[in-house]
Amino acid sequence: MPDNKVYLLDGGTLVLDGFHIWWNKGPGGEVRFPVYSVLVETPKGRFLVDTGFDYDHVQRALAFEKPQQTQQQTIPGALKLLGLEPKDIDVVFNSHFHFDHVGGNKFFPHAKKICHKQELPQAADCEVFEALGYSDLGFSTEVAEARGATDQLTAGQTAANTKYDLIEGDVELAPGVKLIYTPGHTIGHYSLLVEFDNRRPLLLTLDAAYTKKSYDHDINAGFHIDPVAGVRSMRRLKQIEADLDAEVLFSHDPESFANYRTGVNFYG
Ligand code: 5PN
Ligand code: ZN
Ligand code: ZN
Q1: Residues in the chain with pLDDT < 70?
Q2: Hey, which of 22, 99, 129 would you mutate to test ligand 1's pocket, going by the most ligand atoms within 8 Å of its Cβ?
Q3: Which ligand does the CA of 16 lie closest to?
Q4: Which of 100, 136, 207, 253 is catalytic?
Q5: For residue 166, what are the β-bridge partners?
Q6: How are strands ordered across the β-sheet holding 171-174?
Q7: Per-residue pLDDT at 18
Q8: Closest by alpha carbon to 184, among 227, 223, 218?
Q9: N or C: where does the chain have the smaller number of CB atoms within 10 Å of the terminal CB?
Q10: Within 13 Å, how many C-alpha atoms sit on residue 118's CB side?
Q11: Structural contact between residues 55 and 61, judged by C-beta atoms closer than 8 angstroms
């Protein structure tokens, strides 16, 4: 069995109306919710799943989401709490390319990068209703060029260090580190399953289910490309949870997140 460890890197908070978090269900009203990234330490290297939001980008493009992020909630700050630096990360995997999952990609020019094969072309040529979600484009020279946003590329960033290995379907990244294809929220969205030596598996829904309420009642977020696929993906995750007796973690649930292990407190 794999000797894996999972660290959740607290990335600060954003605000949305409840009708965006729980599509056509609500209740409405401001909800402040967490954003985090996932560090998986394995015998085969350190995998970082998602990289949070860039505070300045959100202030510029989505100030209505009222971002809050301390220095320790930036990606370099959160890694430092663990005694790590960006160069210690071997692989960056993005569950999808929404701004609140790619903001720190710029800190990892050296890392191998992986995403679903349809997620890059979709971000480069998205539907009108997806443009705000795919608004921080510094994760890819190619996408930033296609969208006329080369100003978002960090100085010194080259096409070579924003190159992605493309995957499709379910993929095992490393022993016990499994990507579960869960389209709906975006065209190439993935959830994450991690297995351990000495504890139950963790099933991280990522944006396939923002909150426990979303998951329990098959409620999509307002941001999606295919709500029917989104519901099927949530049902698939529930089957995996039952089959493996997994502990399920949600991506943007304020009440649940308060009880998650963060910082130096890891799962494993
Ligand atoms: C947090 C958040 N805010 C806005 C959007 C959007 O337009 O697509 C995805 C998304 C978000 O995750
Ligand atoms: Zn998203
Ligand atoms: Zn998100």
Answers
A1: 1
A2: 99
A3: 1
A4: 100
A5: 115
A6: 171-174, 177-181, 190-194, 202-206, 247-250
A7: 98
A8: 227
A9: N
A10: 13
A11: no
C-alpha–C-alpha distance, residues 143 and 141, integer Å: 6
Q: From 19, 186, 206, 223, give the residue whose CB has the most ligand 1 atoms within 8 Å, as the site to mutate.
A: 223
pLDDT digits (tens, 9 = 90+) for 220-232: 999 999 999 999 9
- Domain range annotation of the chain: 5-267
| Cα-to-centroid distance, 85 and ligand 1 (Å) | 28
Amino acid at 107: F
Enumerate residues lining ligand 1, CB below 6 A.
14, 16, 65, 98, 100, 132-133, 223
Query: The tokens of 91 are what?
Result: 């692989």
Given this model, what pLDDT does residue 2 score? 83
Whether 245 is a known active-site residue: answer no
The structure tokens 């480069």 sit at: 124
The predicted structure's pLDDT at residue 1: 64
Which residues fall within 8 angstroms of residue 103, CB to CB, at 6 or more apart? 11, 51, 52, 53, 54, 55, 57, 58, 75, 136, 138
Ion ligand 3: residues, Cβ under 5 Å: 100, 207
- The pLDDT of residue 158 is 80
* Residue 159, pLDDT score: 82
- The answer to whether the Cα torsion of 16, 18, 19, 22 is positive or negative is positive
Question: Cα of 50 to ligand 3 centre, how many Å?
Answer: 9
Which is the CATH superfamily of the domain at 5-267? Ribonuclease Z/Hydroxyacylglutathione hydrolase-like (3.60.15.10)
Whole-angstrom Cα distance, residue 99 to residue 130? 11
